[in-house]
Amino acid sequence: MFKAWRSSMVLRVTLTIILFSGAVISLVGSALYTQLNSGIYKEKKSASISDAQSIARATQIQLMFAQYQNKSQIPKVFVSILADPTIDGTTTGRDIAIFSSDKIPKNLRFNATSNAFAEISIPTKFRAKTRKGVGTQFTEAPLFYKTGPSKNGLIVGHNLSIDGGGSYEFYVVYTYDQQQITMALVRNALLIAGIALLLLIGVITLFVTFRLVAPIREAAELAAKITAGDLQQRININRRDEMGRLSTSFNDMTAALQAQILRLENLSRLQQRFVSDVSHELRTPLTTIRMASQILHAERNSFEPALARSAELLMNQIDRFEALLSDLLEVSRFDAEAAVMETQEVDLTQLVRESIDYVHPSQDRIVELVAPAEPVLAVVDPRRIQRIVRNLVTNAIDHRGEKPVVVTIRGNESEVALSVRDFGDGLTEEESKRVFDRFWRKDPARTRIRGSSGLGLSIAKEDAVLHHGELEVWARPAQGAHFVLTIPRHPGGVIQGKPIPVIPE
Questions:
Q1: Distances in Å between the alpha carbon of 432 and those of 89, 425, 474, 482, 503?
Q2: 347 burial class (0-12, 13-18, 19+ CB within 10 angstroms)?
Q3: When comparing pLDDT for 297 and 151, which is higher?
Q4: Cα–Cα distance for residue pair 58/191, rounded to 1 Å
């Protein structure tokens, strides 16, 4: 769900609007329900109190007439009131309870309730208040019945008196059944209306969002195709609103991008062809120059010292020139994506040892090799791995400082790795980011043991990528540098671990 939320703008917009709309509808519905509930119950209470007062006045008048005619008729008055068909709690929601005080003569005492209304429904404190009070008293309380469940209702009390000092507690009881039914209907109506409105808002939002997002989704799909290399893709424009103008701008941008990419591709092809042609064309005169320089170099002992030194310098520079031409040809192959590997299973330790001997054949301990006793086997292109090692070791020797260069070889089940560690001047963080750039050198004016074209580390990086491997560097000023090559044991593999960490131990 969270993934869908993050990946779909339609879902986010629709759910957000539905949630906010639901909150607003809930607040409005709650406020409306509260107002209606308060008004209905307030009206019921007012009408009930007025009705109870009318009944109490009529009862008081009947008591007065009965007292003047014959006091023994007073209980009959109460019986007739309780028997009145309008006093029926099951149909009208109204009941009556009558209780006589102790001061009433025994023959005039009357204690009864209508229907199955329970006397315990009337709170004791309210009864005491009614007996002492003058006028109308009322309270809300649960109403209990002998034959049914309890109900919420209103109790209105009066104190009816007769001559002689006696009095009767006269209670008219009203239930809230009808009001509760009404409010239930209102609540259900509000709930159904709210849900319907929320669904309507959701459908409208979904429709509008789809209409708005559809051109954006189309543009995103076309952008993905353009990124994949299909520069002919365009958006179909069938509208003149903001999205139509956006589509037009997108198509214009794509056309301009296509033109720029084609121009750059043509320029790149021209550059690659130029480098390749120049490199090949220079080889013929270079071969002639080398042959002449070899003759001069062989006869240098018969020359004057200055001429002999010139012959040696000429030979060294021709070697550098040839190396530069080879590097340029290799770079052009990488740029043209024409570089291929010729793989075979080799012992990486033996391969590295041969590469070190080629770079530094002397027996002094400038380079130390740390490798396991057993063979470290891997399927690689030996020529390219040797070139990586030679470039790394050569670079390390040029910057080694006072300590020897340390070459380490390790492997696990799926990867092999080698590292070259020097303890020279090191590199800054910015220099470490540029160390694999073409023609970049830390200090072009610095005198090195060997000349450098500035392409060695760049080519080493490309060779590592060609093996689906990684070539990383760690360096700190005054602490030296640490280059680590990690490649899968088999072609096409994926690096899952690092036998040698890039940060030196």
A1: 95, 12, 7, 11, 13
A2: middle
A3: 151
A4: 44
**Comparing 239 with 369, which gets the higher pLDDT?**
369
Q: What is the maximum alpha-carbon separation in the chain?
A: 169
Locus of tokens 């340390």: 406
Q: Distance between CA atoms of 265 and 413, rounded to whole angstroms?
A: 42
- Tell the residue number behind the tokens 């708005």, with chain if given: 212
Answer yes or no: are the C-beta atoms of 162 and 67 closer than 8 Å. Answer: yes
Structure tokens at 259: 């033109």
What is the per-residue pLDDT across 50-109, written as a single tens digit (0 to 9) for each? 988 898 888 888 888 776 667 777 778 888 888 776 665 555 678 888 888 877 777 788
Q: For residue 344, how many C-alpha atoms fall within 13 Å in the half-sphere facing its CB?
A: 7
Task: Provide the 8-state DSSP code for 404.
Answer: P
Q: How confident is the model at residue 449 (pLDDT cuts 50, 70, 90)?
A: very low
**CB within 8 A of 324, min separation 6: which ones?**
453, 455
Q: Which two tokens stand for residue 292?
A: 């002449």
What tokens appear for 464 in the block? Answer: 């590592």
Residues 6 or more apart whose CB falls under 8 angstroms from that of 276 comprise 329, 332
Distance CA 220, CA 126 (A): 76
Pair type for strands 167-175 and 94-100: antiparallel
What is this structure's pTM? Answer: 0.49
CA pair distance 209, 138, nearest whole angstrom? 58
Distance CA 377, CA 487 (A): 12
- CA–CA distance, 89 with 367 (Å, rounded to integer): 110
Give the span between the Cα atoms of 265 and 259, in whole angstroms: 10
Phi, psi of 182, deg, nearest 5: -60, -45
Q: How far apart are CA 89 and CA 143, in angstroms?
A: 11
Residues in CB range of 325: below 8 A, 6 or more apart: 279, 282, 283, 286
Structural domains of the chain ordered from first start:
2-183 (3.30.450), 259-335 (1.10.287.130), 344-488 (3.30.565.10)
* Own/partner pairs, 257-264, CB within 8 angstroms, 24+ separation: 257/226, 257/231, 258/231, 258/232, 261/231, 262/231
- Number of Cβ within a 10 Å radius of residue 341: 15
Enter the tokens of residue 415.
Answer: 């990867």
* 44 closest CA partner among 190, 175, 137: 175
Q: What are phi and psi of 377, to 5 degrees?
A: -90, 145
Q: What would the DSSP string read from start to end of 125-181?
A: HHHHHHHH--S-EEEEEEEEETTEEEEEEEEEEEEEE-TTS-EEEEEEEEE-HHHHH
Judging by DSSP bridges, how do beta strands 405-411 and 367-370 pair with one another?
Answer: parallel
Half-sphere exposure at residue 207, Cβ-oriented, CA atoms within 13 angstroms: 6
From 390, 388, 272, select the one nearest 338 (Cα to Cα): 272
Q: Which two tokens stand for residue 219?
A: 């543009």
